[in-house]
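In this supplementary section we document a worked example of the pipeline. Step one takes a protein sequence of length 115 as its only input; no multiple sequence alignment statistics are reported here. Step two produces a three-dimensional model, which step three serialises into structure tokens for compact storage. The input and output of this example are shown verbatim.
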Amino acid sequence: MDTIIISDLEVFYQVGTTDQERAKPQRLLISLEMQHDFKPAIASDNLGLTIDYYSVCQRLLSFGETCEWQLIETLAHDIAELLLKEYRPKAVTVTVKKFVIPQAQFVAVSLTRAR
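The serialised model returned by step three reads:
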């Protein structure tokens, strides 16, 4: 299977376990690996037969505008479900990085979902 990779897309979402942490959007990095068969797109050189990674990025940049999450695990799950529904990859791996522990470069979760 072929893979589309989006690495460290910077977004600003309201996420955190306390009201104070969710009070304003915070910087997160989202990485995706979407499994998709490229053969039809390659044969026809047609964007409509693959996953438009620009569209995916634009969708994720606006995804958190009206939402908030307590856990980045829930956020990663919601992103995976959105991508499976709207862009129909065979499978998607979502990694969400958060920068809340000063002594660590980041904390992250990663999950894989398939349709």
